[in-house]
Amino acid sequence: xxxxxxxxxxxxxxxxxxxxxxxxxxxxxxxxxxxxxxxxxxxxxxxxxxxxxxxxxxxxxxxxxxxxxxxxxxxxxxxxxxxxxxxxxxxxxxxxxxxxxxxxxxxxxxxxxxxxxxxxxxxxxxxxxxxxxxxxxxxxxxxxxxxxxxxxxxxxxxxxxxxxxxxxxxxxxxxxxxxxxxxxxxxxxxxxxxxxxxxxxxxxxxxxxxxxxxxxxxxxxxxxxxxxxxxxxxxxxxxxxxxxxxxxxxxxxxxxxxxxxxxxxxxxxxxxxxxxxxxxxxxxxxxxxxxxxxxxxxxxxxxxxxxxxxxxxxxxxxxxxxxxxxxxxxxxxxxxxxxxxxxxxxxxxxxxxxxxxxxxxxxxxxxxxxxxxxxxxxxxxxxxxxxxxxxxxxxxxxxxxxxxxxxxxxxxxxxxxxxxxxxxxxxxxxxxxxxxxxxxxxxxxxxxxxxxxxxxxxxxxxxxxxxxxxxxxxxxxxxxxxxxxxxxxxxxxxxx
Length: 496
Ligand code: DHE
Fold this sequence. Notes:
It contains six helices and 33 strands. The chain is mostly beta strands. Mean pLDDT is 92; it is low at 11-15. Bound molecules: heme D (DHE). Heme D is lined by residues 56-57, 142, 168-170, 210-211, 259, 346, 390, 438, 479-480, 495.
């Protein structure tokens, strides 16, 4: 290495002291204006955590906009009259810089965060509303961090409440459909009573959480986390802390959790790890000790799905071309799956096509739906779409499968696919220029609701047979919607 000349050294020193001064100024601005809601360590308080680990999905331009203009329907006010645009921009750089001392969230922190608002034993066990309790939709409103409970016959709101910041992934239900459990990206888990339309309790299990699963005996909740890389087991009745399981691979290296799911026929939680090539299984019947059974995989598991009997796990890594099939009985990879681009297996669905059972998955890097034969994992067809998609949905009673074009210039479009011919039979553009995505069917599959993810967006109800629009409910960035009946029955065509 050539030694630096004195002038270069001086310039470098000047530049780094300038950066240091900017960092310090941004940190001071943070401590003065933001820490009261977001905490001094940026781990969140009444506001969300503001660490790179939790802001990963938010583009810097969006963060700048929120600091300048505030966030509608929240306590976040705008600072454009207080801070210059340069100050806002350096503040955002500071928020995207890892903390000097990595934040920690201990078992004591978890236990101290636990709040029980009401004892469920004191509440009526019968629904205290007049809607069919199994045909309700739980709707996540991403734009305002609210949740709406929607009657699935009349498509009318029966309750609406504030959620924690940035709920992500599907909420999960107790086996009878009375309770719903939510996970927010910043680690909060909440339990809501749909019969009594009231919040039961909450607990913060981590600083950055992936998702949660509820055991099919209704006794346990398992939560998978990024920060710290851990699994946390809760008592499903009152959300009290049961166990923390640090995630360390066979090789001794710590790992984040990609996702945790319940596998009802196996009476177990199945966990995919992100930084080590392993799947963990936790049987939960009869006084479980929550020690993992480790299955070694052929690749990392960023995204995965199951066959309907939960015998096989289909998985892919973000980098891989294709995926792998893991046999949960044998505990090993038994086949490769021939898939191009970046298949989004987690959103994949299956259905009966004549004699064949097929699995179809959208692709987040290419405009196509891959349809596979579930007998031999061979590709049957690639259905061309107008761009890469994120979600896919159907219902056993519907002849159509729906998929969005989530990315790119055509994200206003949704495709309706005939499940037998595998042809796109209709392309809808419900609100031109606005992103249309994520569909969920009602209990009997006669209707479905589609989200338009826009500040001036909407839920749009369609007749599943005629494809005619039935109703439009204005909403700020509605994201996922979850039908109680479909969820508790792990119905064909919906996410698990
Ligand atoms: Fe999701 C589900 C992972 C980005 C909206 N997403 C899931 C699940 C996983 C996952 C593992 C299944 C959890 C469950 O239901 O229990 N999501 C990921 C990612 O790795 C990715 C690509 C990057 C990340 O930031 O984590 C990602 N997801 C997004 C988004 O940007 C979306 C569009 C907006 C948002 O809310 O952040 C988004 N993800 C969703 C939704 C579901 C979901 C609405 C539930 C779908 C369902 O129908 O069940």
